[in-house]
């Protein structure tokens, strides 16, 4: 696997030098992988989540690798006061913030009718409210200081298709996508870009434990849903995120980039189920169909 180009760094060294980037949910999973790569490219980071110990561990791991600053700050994105405090501490340490990666999320599979109202709220509050809390606090400050900046939101492909059994997450991610596109237009005049990434399946402990529990993995092999027959590698997502948060993508605004090996389209196409047919079966089908044309 390590020989594949997509598991390797893509951008030039120092592509994010002197940039200061906040990553919500930056202590684990995809947030940690994207943060590690941003730091390798020269960025200083602020990583946030609810768990101090985990943040500190990740911050020192990244620092050991890159020797660029990583500031861990506990911040529950559902609470606007904590978000304002996180912004103030970031400014105190670095004097500015150039990029906001809204990556924090909560999710689990469940039939919707089994959810309590509080369970639904919990997911929507982390994903949608958390994203607009951070976006609002940072946006106000950027506009006031006339500072160009970049917002990158992590959604998922069911932001537009919807999905059974993760309904609160689907509602919330759809809201985040609407926020991305709306502010791309409204805040473009301030030099603030808003883009999103819609990843397909990228194994992480946080997502897999809650969405694809071990007991279900054999019966529901997620790779079979993907035309390319594999799941994503963290580095290929990190490459895309680094591009979108960097100045290389200066003319990208309001875009949502899907990186899912073709997964959602496979679920959507009317005749995609015919991939199960063998060449021999296709020979038979062709005969039948051609006959229809002649009669
Ligand atoms: C039904 C559940 C439940 C479950 C929790 N609840 N788990 N209901 N089925 N499996 C209910 C609780 O009973 C409670 O309601 C309410 O939800 C809040 O639960 P708490 O545990 O009090 O909340 P909290 O401690 O804030 O934890 C939030 C969490 C947890 C979302 C429930 O899973 C979490 O911390 N997640 C963070 C990380 C995460 O989820 N990562 C995955 C992102 S993956 P009551 O009424 O009982 O009080 C992702 C990928 C998308 O988004 C695409 C993949 C391809
Ligand atoms: P993860 O490791 O569980 O990441 C979620 C992060 O959010 C955790 O670090 C968690 O930290 C943080 N978080 C949760 N609630 C929070 C809150 N209230 N305030 C602040 N931080 C909070 O899962 P992941 O797979 O890397 O997911 C990262 C992002 O990718 C999410 O937006 C997810 O929807 C998206 N995504 C993932 C996949 C995939 O296949 N993995 C696919 C599509 C989209 P704490 O618990 O310490 O707070």
Strand content: 5-15%
Residue stretches low in confidence (pLDDT < 50, at least 5 long) are none
CATH homolog superfamily: NAD(P)-binding Rossmann-like Domain
Find the count of extended strands (DSSP E, 2+ residues): 7
Can you tell me the CATH class? Alpha Beta
Q: How large is the count of helical segments? A: 11
Structural class, by secondary structure, is alpha/beta
Query: What compounds sit in this structure?
Result: hexanoyl-coenzyme A, NADP nicotinamide-adenine-dinucleotide phosphate
Question: Widest sheet: strand order?
Answer: 3-2-1-4-5-6-7
Overall pLDDT confidence: 96
Q: How many domains, as an integer?
A: 1
Order of helices and strands, N to C?
EHEHEHEHEHHEHHHEHH
- The global form is globular
CATH topology: Rossmann fold
The rounded distance between the terminal residues' Cα atoms is 53 Å
- How big is the Rg? 21 Å
State the CATH architecture. 3-Layer(aba) Sandwich
Fraction of helical residues: 40-55%
For the largest beta-sheet, the strand count, sense and barrel status come to: 7 strands, parallel
Task: Write a structural description.
By secondary structure, the protein is α/β, with parallel strands linked by helices. The protein has one domain: Rossmann fold, CATH 3.40.50.720. Helix content is 47%, strand content 13%. The protein has a seven-stranded parallel sheet, sandwiched between helices. α3 (80-94) runs parallel beside α4 and α4 (117-145) packs parallel to α6 (167-186). 38% of the residues are buried. Residues 24-25, 27-31, 49-51, 54, 76-78, 103-106, 126, 130, 154, 156, 199, 201-202, 204, 206-207 line the site of NADP nicotinamide-adenine-dinucleotide phosphate (NAP).
């Amino acid at each position: 696997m390590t020989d594949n180009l997509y598991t390797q760094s893509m951008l030039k060294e120092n592509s994010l030098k002197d940039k200061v980037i906040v990553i919500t949910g930056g202590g684990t999973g995809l947030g940690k992988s994207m943060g590690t790569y941003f730091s390798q490219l020269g960025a200083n980071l602020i990583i946030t989540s609810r768990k101090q110990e985990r943040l500190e561990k990740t911050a020192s791991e990244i620092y050991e690798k890159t020797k660029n600053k990583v500031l861990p700050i506990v911040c529950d994105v559902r609470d606007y006061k904590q978000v304002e405090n996180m912004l103030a501490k970031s400014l105190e340490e670095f004097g500015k913030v150039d990029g906001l990666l809204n990556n924090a999320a909560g999710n689990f599979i469940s039939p919707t009718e089994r959810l309590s109202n509080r369970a639904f709220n919990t997911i929507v509050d982390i994903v949608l409210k958390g994203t607009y809390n951070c976006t609002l606090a940072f946006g106000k400050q950027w506009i006031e200081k006339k500072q160009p900046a970049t917002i990158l939101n992590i959604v998922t492909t069911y932001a537009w298709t919807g999905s059974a059994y993760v309904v609160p997450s689907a509602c919330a991610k759809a809201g985040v996508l609407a926020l991305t596109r709306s502010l791309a237009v409204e805040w473009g005049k301030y030099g603030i870009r808003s883009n999103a990434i819609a990843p397909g399946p990228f194994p992480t402990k946080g997502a897999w434990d809650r969405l694809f529990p071990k007991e279900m993995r054999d019966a529901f092999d997620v790779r079979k849903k993907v035309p390319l027959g594999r799941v994503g590698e963290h580095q290929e997502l990190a490459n895309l995120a680094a591009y979108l948060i960097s100045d290389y993508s200066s003319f990208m605004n309001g875009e949502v980039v899907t990186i899912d090996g073709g997964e959602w389209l496979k679920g959507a196409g009317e005749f995609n189920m015919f991939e199960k047919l063998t060449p021999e079966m296709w020979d038979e089908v062709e005969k039948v169909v051609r006959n229809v044309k002649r009669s």
